Amino acid sequence: MDWKGRIAYLATLHRKEEVIAPLLAEHLGIQVQVIPLGTDQFGTFSRERPRPGDPLHTLRLKIERARQAYPAPLVLASEGSFGPHPQIPWIPWNQEWVMLKVFESGADPLELVGYAESTQTNFSHRWVQSFAEALDFAQKVGFPEHALIALDQPEKPQVIHKGIQDEATLRQVVGEMLTRQQGLHLETDMRALYNPTRLQVIAAATQNLIAKAQSLCPACGTPGYWRIRLRPLAGLPCGQCGAPTPVTKAWIYGCARCSHTHTEPVAETWADPAQCPFCNP
Predict the structure, then answer these.
(1) CA 191 to each of CA 25, 144, 148: distance values in angstroms, whole numbers, following the listed order
(2) H helix or E strand, kind and range, residue 228
(3) What is the pTM of this model?
(4) Helices 17-28 and 196-214: crossing angle, nearest 10°?
(5) pLDDT beyond 90 at 49
(6) Residues 200, 205, 211, CA angle at the centre, nearest 5°?
(7) Of 65, 206, 259, 261, which is most buried by a Cβ count within 10 Å?
(8) Mean pLDDT of the chain
(9) Is position 2 within any domain?
(10) pLDDT at residue 73 above 90?
């Protein structure tokens, strides 16, 4: 598939094109045009509206809504998620997905999904009872380059102030809210246009998408020939005792269109003993 010179429509109001567009132009020759779609209808970080499903389901809904207004052959959407790391719960974790959906006559739509994850995120929150506490929290999460959200309560908030980006506004919001209650909930604004650290993870997900778009099926030439599952065998042997470990030994690659697959071992021969259930129980 020749990507060069094609236009992909990106559904966003949060300036995600600032990192997505240059990468797609440089590596694939795709030009990105923004569709001004209000994606808050598909969920908000500030909890006014829950996400309608998992990230992939939400991406498909965004693209479907975008195509209702712009029935283009290439449509893009991005989705992020934040929470505790699954293995290290006290460390915050950012996951990002970028989906490119290709609509061609006579064929089922082709989905290419780039993914990236990172613990390099300022995702955080704190209950504060004074402006001094608010400013201390703000300085620790990269304010004012990274914006803040103020809420009257962490669950089911009734008062929400988003996109706080300067000390004067922060002082005003905190002062007003403290006249009505004894404290307030501050958290990082994770919308892409207010969070440059998150933008870098979106860029990494875009690079993963590009790699998939450039990986063609050896059998039919369809883009997106990529890892689809682990090989169902014991993992890499421990470098110290030789016992099998949970570390991946091989991947099965597959095509999104035809049934072609192949198995590819990982580059490593031995697993770190720290990953061994016998050497490091």
Answers:
(1) 24, 14, 10
(2) strand 226-230
(3) 0.89
(4) 30
(5) no
(6) 130
(7) 206
(8) 92
(9) no
(10) yes
